[in-house]
Amino acid sequence: MKLFLVVALVLLGTISACQLHEGSPEQDVPAEQDEEEPGEPEPPCPTESESFRMIVPGTEAHTSRYVFVKNYQRFRKAQKLCARCYHGHLASIHSHLANALLRCIAHTHIKLGLVWIGGITCRRHRHLHSCWVDHSSWNYSNWARKNPQHVRKTCVALSTAGGHWRSVCCRARLPFICEY
Hints:
Blueprint: H1 2-11, E1 51-56, E2 64-73, H2 75-86, E3 89-90, H3 96-109, E4 114-124, E5 127-132, E6 154-159, E7 165-168, E8 174-179
Antiparallel strand pairs: 1-2, 2-8, 3-8, 4-5, 4-6, 6-7
């Protein structure tokens, strides 16, 4: 099934500009941004020109649908937009293949260093704890060297350069991937 999916994407030209292996240097994590303003109005749902959709075929119960949004948002606002506009959540990633496909598509269309995915990392009782916002199991990770960072709560971003994950201040503004 995985081979079929990769072959289908190559034939469609979706991943022809990408490599499904690591090797590109990671981008730097953006500096922290200002706090959210209380009472700040909700941004409108992204337009067709600000986003694009991708469906990863599978069994009926396992077909994955994604929306890549080019608008820069803080993690919490991105999550709210995923819920309000797409009835979904920031994407959770559970395999190397899914990580590679999402990285490749994001790199092809967004061409930015980092995009939000739905992971949060924090300390609990002196131990690192990572979780997905959709409450699915944390059964795969692809952390960059020296990540995750454990100083405080951080949110997880996917690097479009090499596919590694980075701990980023949740107040940083990044494009994002919704899953619905």
